[in-house]
Structure to design on (305 residues):
């Protein structure tokens, strides 16, 4: 298993999963939430999701840091570093293209 | 109960349009403040922003609408910036997580994730991104009314003049085209670069 390679996500790094599921579920039932509380609830959920994902990413990056100093992993790391802004860029442009 | 932001057109797909009147939210609509509303833009400048259907999950629209109602701003930042960024982060971590749980060494998992995201789509996205970036730069310039200065050079029609509703909608990447007030290329003194980008955008148009 992955454990044999000395790498596994800890609870902090895995926090992205329940938080994402939670906000996804909340958005799914949003129409059923009373209007008076809907916006505030969604806003708080968005803040909580943002914080959790950042917290989780921080841990994942820290765990990954020690494993990325050899052979092709360096290239993979560079690709990954490029990937995040690149994908964000693509997502934004795609939405602009669709909306425009 | 339909999960839509607004259904002003002929289909039932969700749309990112704000209601015409503030504070008239129904159980199914997202109410935002009326300032530079997308509905206003859609009604006055259909060639620029015609209230096109939102072809992605309506969740970002809900979250953006909630942010707008609570903070009075943030629709575009949430829709185009925060939610996509968080989604990408979650996707990347999830792929690594799944691969590592199934015994894939982290280095190989990282390489697979990076290659899958970067290389496989490169052939498609490179050409697409170049043209789309160009279009975005052009759109940002046009919507700000700033592009008129380059009409003669680029053979583009002017629209969205300053002060008109069409100019109120500023795409998140408007700074790339140096739109006024965006702190972009023009305001930072990189006028030549912005002009070159516009000219380049036109060549792709």
């Amino acid at each position: 298993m992955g454990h044999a390679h000395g790498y596994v996500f800890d609870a902090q790094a895995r926090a992205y999963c329940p938080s994402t599921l939670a906000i996804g579920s909340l958005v799914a039932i949003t129409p059923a939430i009373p209007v008076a509380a809907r916006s505030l609830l969604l806003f708080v959920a968005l803040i909580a999701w943002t914080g959790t994902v950042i917290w989780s990413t921080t841990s994942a990056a820290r765990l990954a840091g020690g494993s990325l100093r050899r052979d092709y992993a360096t290239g993979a790391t560079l690709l990954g570093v490029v990937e995040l802004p690149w994908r964000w860029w693509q997502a934004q442009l795609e939405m602009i293209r669709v909306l425009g | 109960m339909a999960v839509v932001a607004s259904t002003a057109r002929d289909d039932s797909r969700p749309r990112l349009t704000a209601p015409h009147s503030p504070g008239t939210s129904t159980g199914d609509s997202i109410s935002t403040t009326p300032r530079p509303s997308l509905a206003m833009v859609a009604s006055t400048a259909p060639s620029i922003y015609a209230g096109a259907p939102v072809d992605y999950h309506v969740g970002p629209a809900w979250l953006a609408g909630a942010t707008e109602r609570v903070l009075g701003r943030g629709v575009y930042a949430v829709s185009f910036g925060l939610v996509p960024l968080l989604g990408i982060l979650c996707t990347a971590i999830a792929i690594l997580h799944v691969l590592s749980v199934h015994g894939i060494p982290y280095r190989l998992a990282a390489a697979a994730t990076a290659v899958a995201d970067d290389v496989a789509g490169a052939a498609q996205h490179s050409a697409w991104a170049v043209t789309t970036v160009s279009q975005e730069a052009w759109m940002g310039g046009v919507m700000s009314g700033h592009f008129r200065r380059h009409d003669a050079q680029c053979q583009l029609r002017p629209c969205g003049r300053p002060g008109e509703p069409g100019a109120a909608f500023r795409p998140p990447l408007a700074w790339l085209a140096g739109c006024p007030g965006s702190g972009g290329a023009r305001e930072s003194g990189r006028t030549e670069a912005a002009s070159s980008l516009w000219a380049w955008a036109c060549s792709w148009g």
